[in-house]
Amino acid sequence: MTSRSPAAVPVRDRLLLAGARLLEEADGGDVSTRAICEAAGVQAPTLYHHFGSKQGLLDDVVSHGFRRFLAARPPLGAEDTSDPLDAIRDAWDIHVQFGVEHPRFYGYIYAPIGRETPCRVVSEVEEMILSTLEPAALHGRLTVAPADAARQILAASSGVVLSLIANAGEPVDGELSRRTRDAILASITRSSGTRESVPTVSSTAIALQAALDAQGSPLGAPETALLHAWLRELAATAPDIALGAAAL
Fold this sequence. Notes:
single chain, Arc Repressor Mutant, subunit A, 3 domains, 65% helix, globular
């Protein structure tokens, strides 16, 4: 079977392939619009037509790489486990592994520092993490709202990835990632099967809000909005008061 000539490859795909190759070759340096267009055999207006900007193209390159990386792995939560925190640990490990195995792509996500529009893959990673937090919230295992937990996990795991990339000449320190992951999880979750796992006002408010998000509310829109506001306030400010007979 013969390979297709470059002209037979769709223009959008040629631009993505060129962007991916140049991003890898740049080794953290800038990739110019001109270089991408020359490698893809197109003019700059063609790039803008398909992606809006050079950043739009490179964001798509990294996003596509992340989706392919996920597709090659078992779906999160597919493994039968009694601990809802296992999927959160897996999401952390997947994020770190992607960054370590694709340092050029990951470096682009956070460079340049303070750019006006963050790379789209940041929100994709955060959504992946958030999806694993919702079951833990429903089980009353979170001590903070899922969205807050997702931001903390993303920030901490990103720091681990950048630290590991910065020491690329040394063996990967898997213990650094594991210890940081476990410390973050300990700060945002409740243990199971111990006195500390007794439901509290805060964890129950978080669980109820997660249930309403997952299954919908029987109340009208104004009442639902008010209930969510109350639950957020309880989750954030309620004393750590245990509920039920187990608290006696």
